[in-house]
Structure formats: C-alpha cells, structure tokens
Design goal:
The structure is a single chain. The chain has a domain of about 70 residues: Ribosomal Protein L15, Chain: K, domain 2, CATH 3.100.10. It contains three helices and six strands; from the N terminus they run H-E-E-H-E-E-E-H-E. The protein has about 140 residues and is of the alpha/beta class. The protein is elongated and about 85 Å long.
C-alpha cells in the first residue's frame, strides 16, 4: 500500500449542500427554509429552553434551597504535594498551576496538613490550615 492508494471509505464523505444558487439548482428562492416563520429569517432560531409556548420545564419544576452566589471554589492541596519543589522555593498560585497541582477555574488554594514536609518554603496568597501552618513553620518555612 502506498500513500497515493489511501482514500476515504465509499459513502463516508458527502459534498456540502449549496443553497441559494438560483431556481435551476432546486434549492434556490427560499433556500430550503420554507416560507416565512421564525426559522426562515436570518438570525432566527428558538431560544434555549423555549418549548413552543408550553410552560418550560425549568419553570415547571420546583426550586428548593439556597444558592450562594458569593461562594468561592478552592483547590485543595496537601503538604506532601509540596515535596516536588526545591528547598527555599516561593510558592504561589501561578507556580502551583505550572506544576499541575491546580487546574481549572478556582478562586483560591487551601493547603491541608496530610503528609510530611522536609524542605522549607515561602507560601504567598495561599490559605493554610492550622496544622499545615505548624508543619511548614517547624520545617523552617514561612507564610505570607
């Protein structure tokens, strides 16, 4: 088999439908959109959640509880995860992202005390639990 022998499987590729190319094409005039109505207009489509005038499901279902719009999402890391950094390193959110310890959209980072720490670190803009703080400071590190 050579490179020039490669071809897609028969029937797997289909040409794009060209609309609005005159009456002889069979797809001219209304260009497969039918006559008038919302979906015939440019930019016209039904908004998300619209059910044709029927009461939409998001309004039919009961709402319960409380949704806190000020809630913060914190990434959780442990003291043992800091072992990958060299001794005397300054650790902040950006460095944790580059190391792959913090992913996605988070508001902050919280350091918990699981594991042991043998090197000294300087932590910046990171929330630290009381036990983790004791472990970091006993290893000679500091928290800013």
């Amino acid at each position: 088999m050579q490179l020039h022998d490669l071809a897609p499987a028969p029937g797997s590729r289909k040409n794009r439908k060209k609309v609005g190319r005159g009456p002889g094409s069979g797809m001219g005039k209304t260009s497969t959109r039918g006559h008038k109505g919302l979906k015939a207009r440019s930019g016209g489509s039904v908004r998300p959640g619209f059910e044709g005038g029927q009461m939409p499901i998001y309004r039919r279902l009961p709402k319960r509880g409380f949704f806190n719009i000020f809630k913060t999402q914190n990434a959780v890391i442990n003291v043992r995860d800091l072992d990958r950094f060299e001794d005397g390193a300054t650790i902040d959110m950006e460095i944790l992202r580059q190391a792959g310890l913090v992913k996605g959209r988070v508001d902050g980072v919280k350091l918990l005390a699981s594991g042991e720490v043998s090197k000294k670190f300087t932590l910046k803009d990171i929330q630290v639990s009381q036990t983790a703080k004791e472990k970091i400071e006993s290893a000679g590190g500091s928290i800013e």
